[in-house]
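Researcher: Structure prediction, please.
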Amino acid sequence: MSVSRTDRKKTVPTHSAGVRPLLLEAAGLTLSGLVAEPPEGSPRATVVAVHGGGMRAGYFDGQAHPGLSLLALGARLGFTVLALDRPGYGRSAAQVPAGLTLGEQAVVLPAALDAFAERHDVGAGFLMLAHSYGGKLALTTAAHSPGLLLALDVSGLGHRYAVESAGLSRIRPHVHWERTWGPLDLYPPGTFRAAQALVAPMPSREASEVALWPGMFDELAPRVGVPLRLTFAEHEAWWLHGEPHIADLTARLERAPLVRVERQPGAGHNISLGRAARSYHLRALAFFEERLAGLMATVP
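Model: Predicted structure follows.
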């Protein structure tokens, strides 16, 4: 990743105020991550943020501008926000340097949430916000662990690639940089310096499944039974997201009680690091608010 002269001069703090690191023991692994809790009182619910391939949990605590951090914003609005490094990233990379398959990660993630709930008030339960490869894990988890999530919000993920399969055999950031980030002016100054602390190699077992996703989605989609919101950035270049593709995608999610598809203007694939991050995060949290309100309406 090249870093602009402005980026090189900018000092980047480690975390936003109120955000702290944590470790969780889950399924024999030590997972690292970040957490932010409401400054007062119990959380309304817990938002679990799941990063994409080649990134880390800090993707959801962007440091290039004060308005980027999902963790800080969610905590101010009364949610606990938990962003975990997926297996093969962060602390667990030493234990599983080749990473885990999606199916294996979908066993670890619920175990991590159980471990978190043993020591923290999670409010009404777990909501999940996931990006790109993390969205694959979120959908896989929702299919394999019904009842775990109250709602799911996914950005940067479709079901059919806009890239030929030969181009997926080896993901190389320096080759796919423009496809991943989009126009540079979508991001505030300092973004690419800050992002150097967030990027990590994609583990080999994870990378080996990249090209398999269309078939994997077709198999698991009918088993996803959670309210779902999908967001495609205006400059999304990894996925086909024209109207026919969206119609086919949503038709396959036949068990989901709600499927909402939205577009995020002024954004590239890495929405949560761009100027549109706050707008996207507010829309996602509003979706979660709607789900919680619906949940409360069913309580006698």
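Model: The first strand starts at residue 19 and ends at 26.
Researcher: Thanks, that helps.
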